[in-house]
Request: fold
Amino acid sequence: MDWQEHEHEATRAIEGAATADDLDAARVTYLGRKSELAQALRGVRDRETGMLLNGIRIRLEAAVAERERVLADEELERRLRDEVIDVTLPGEELPLGHIHPITQVRRMVEDAFLGLGYEVRDDREVETVEYNFDKLAFGPTHSARSPRDTFFFENGTVLRTETSPSQIHILEEKPPPIYMVSIGRVYRRDAITATRYPIFHQFEGLAVDKGLTLADLQGTLLHVMRALYGPERRVRFRTHYFPFTEPSIEPDVSCGICGGAGCRTCKFSGWIEMGGAGMVDPRVFENVGLDPEEWSGFAFGCGLERTAQLRHDIPDIRALWEGDLRVLRQF
Ligand SMILES: [Zn+2]
Reply:
């Protein structure tokens, strides 16, 4: 037996083991109980041979231990490399939505009024007849009081037909000066058409202070219309009638499509109607216990759907309520 050659062979097998299993097989072959080395060690009769074989055994055991360590290190390296989670890598991208055009406009309105120091309110949608009509000076025969125009509940409450009841609520809650805008849903018994929907959103402002005039109302609306439609827009007022303002006006904003020259969108007038406004009727002040000689105020209301339609040139109001992503993705 050439033990030197045997040791070389065993060392090559141990150092060449690519896995823990390979290494274990080599260990069994060259160091195991039935290995040639173990059998020879059991039959040793002289000291010289014993020292030779023991030396081989010790060196092979050391080689196995060393190879074990190297394989364990490699395994750790591999796992660190393969199983690592890199938290700086971009994750799987989920489809991101965006804000509905009504909400976009609502936030623009809120920003415009917050910039003027207004308080933003979101009031109840179920109102009493008293707050929806009586205290807002709707006459007893006003058509909005009809169940054909308004959703009534059996207990004498209604789905509010405009955000105006907020005016009464805030006037009853705290003394003037008041600068507030109420934004939210309102309900009317309209058939669904391209221009009407039984649910829509309004924003409605109220300012109560000493010495407010139509000029303050005009300046406020001009600020908001320009925030919504751009700085080049002009605003004009036409006289109108609303139950709770006197005088009442309708603000028009200059058409942004044609710049005022006249087009299909503005019905060739160069102007687009934006809603209603006016100075607070003295009877409304009396209804909430304020002296109309001392206090003055103005109020205005506009539809958010109309604003979104005009901003985005959406011809059909139903697009804003149907939740069709093919439509909504465009805005
Ligand atoms: Zn136009």
